[in-house]
Write a structure and sequence with these properties.
The chain is an alpha/beta fold and 380 residues long. Helix content is 37%, strand content 14%. The chain has one domain. Strands 1-12-11-9-10-8-5-6-7 form a 9-stranded mixed sheet, sandwiched between helices. Strands 2-3-4 form a 3-stranded antiparallel sheet, with no helix packed on it. A hairpin with a 6-residue loop joins strand 2 (50-51) and strand 3 (58-61). Helix 12 packs parallel to helix 14 (363-373).
């Protein structure tokens, strides 16, 4: 990311929000209540997560196949005011497992209600680590069996073929892409990124959210932010009250204009902008309300399927931005230009850089988007 972009002051951000976006929860709730039903292409879509029959307290599949079900017992789990969710598969050979374990330990040190999906070989030690800190009742560590597949694994072969073809044929067209990034070299990692929405849905379906928001954190969160004690808990209830209900919030990266204007410009020509490798947004921390997931899980799943079918690929961050064009009532940004952490901690104060989009959701236009801009298979 460029470090030379001009700094945006609070007054400029507030002015942009007054013109194009909604900063208060009252209007957000009112407009969201009038949002149309899901478009026909999304109405039957439910994503890859499904409950499976069995005798365990919790049994869920991440890929729609109950032969690959995960069985676990987190009865008595205290969800608190929010439930933090993380998951880890070791899919990046450029970073040794020892480094990931250190970062995972930092995540498990959070004073939070936590649901984590980790390799079975790490589960007992991470569970004990939280018990030693007095967090056991707020802990659900799920040891992933060796057969546990990534969400959306049915797309794995086609995603691999797609990124290989893009690397061979399209460097000129996709100017500025980082062709050595994991997103363009590791199809498993691509699905891991895409799978965080499904993992949030799995926790929700298993009744582990307690009615509060779900907060995704990347397993490697603490390679980006400083680990600081949070005696009153993280995320703090005092910070969550600033978020408008019924939305999913992401952070932003430095080096770009204020997100109110950046997203507006993106949405003026989404067909052209979606094929640019430009990460305005940070998905390392995602705060998701249950109601928003009802809409975004089907839309996310449909988008991944259409991206493969039309050979039009991009990463998770750009997909979030595309969804903001069509589902403004369900999404928002905390425009702090870095990975979110301290902004959700007690004592930070008002989330003055919150951006709430306004205007009606338009799932019909989202369903039509792919056919309007990209014919099936034409991109390759």
């Amino acid at each position: 990311m460029s470090s030379t972009a001009s700094t945006v002051n609070a007054g400029e951000l507030q002015d942009l929000n007054r013109q194009f976006y909604n900063r208060g929860s009252t209007v957000a709730e009112s407009e969201a209540s009038k949002a149309p039903a899901l478009g026909s292409c999304l109405a039957g879509e439910r994503g890859p997560v499904a409950a499976c029959p069995g005798n365990s307290i919790h049994q869920v599949t991440l890929d729609g196949n109950c032969s690959n079900a995960i069985y676990f017992d987190c009865s008595g789990f205290d969800a608190g005011v929010a439930t933090v969710v993380t998951a880890f598969w070791h899919l990046r050979p450029d970073r040794p497992l020892d480094a990931w374990v250190r970062w995972l330990e930092d995540v498990h040190d959070l004073n939070a209600s936590l649901v984590s999906f980790v390799p079975k070989t790490l589960a007992a030690a991470l569970r004990k680590r939280r018990a030693d800190r007095g967090y056991l009742r707020r802990t659900c560590v799920v040891g992933l069996p060796t057969h546990a597949t990534l969400p959306y694994c049915s797309l794995l072969g086609r995603v691999g073929e797609l990124i290989q073809k893009l690397r061979q044929d399209r460097p000129a067209r996709y100017a500025g892409w980082n062709w050595q990034s994991p997103e363009m070299t590791n199809s498993n990692y691509v699905l891991l990124q895409a799978g965080k929405v499904a993992m949030l849905d799995a926790v929700r379906q298993q009744g582990l959210s307690g009615g509060g928001p779900l907060v995704w954190v990347d397993a490697g969160l603490f390679r980006h932010v400083s680990k600081t004690p949070q005696p009153s808990g993280w995320p703090a209830e005092s910070q969550l009250k600033y978020l408008s209900p019924g939305r999913i919030y992401l952070g932003s990266w430095a080096g770009y204009p204020p997100m109110a204007s950046a997203v507006r410009a993106f949405c003026e020509a989404p067909g052209a902008n979606f094929v640019k490798n430009r990460n305005h947004l940070s998905g390392g921390v995602v705060i998701a309300a249950d109601g928003a997931l009802d809409v975004i899980v089907p839309a996310w799943t449909h988008a991944l399927e259409r991206m493969v079918a039309t050979r039009t690929w991009n990463n998770e961050q750009v997909l979030w931005e595309l969804l903001m064009c069509f589902f403004p009532q369900r999404l928002g940004i905390l425009d702090y230009r870095k990975v979110l952490f301290e902004e959700l901690a007690a004592g930070h104060g008002s989330l003055k850089n919150k951006v709430d989009f306004r205007g009606p959701d338009n799932p019909g236009a989202f369903c039509a988007f792919w056919g309007e801009h990209y014919a099936d298979g034409a991109r390759l």
